[in-house]
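Lab manual, section 2.4: Encoding a predicted structure.

Procedure: take the sequence of the chain (123 residues), apply the prediction step described in section 2.3, and record the output as structure tokens. A sample record is shown.
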Amino acid sequence: MTESLRIDLDQERWECSKCDTSLGNAREPYKKGLNVYDRDPREVHAALLDQDKYEYSFAPDPTWIRILEYYCPHCGTQMEVEYLPPGHPPTIDIEFDLDALKKQWADRKELPNPVIAPIGEIS
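Recorded output:
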């Protein structure tokens, strides 16, 4: 899971944790509900050598790789970034067993804030 993504188990929906926007069915990849910016990798990784003099400049070749940036469609929070060959479908990087999660959380209370254990204590 990412810092900006959560699941509403009751509704079975992905949500942006920054603006509470529903991003789609949690039984499907969350990326389906996000805006995607398909970036030329040369915008991110500048050439290290003069491209007029050298065929290879250490900048990624956009015919071989693209950078896909995923954003919340409401608040613009960046959720994920992945490097993929052109035309490759988005990866499915998170898949939860929602039925098992519902059973696990049935008797627990939701935590309003993260709980961090004190340094040196392991439980």
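Check your result against the sample. The chain has a mean pLDDT of 90.
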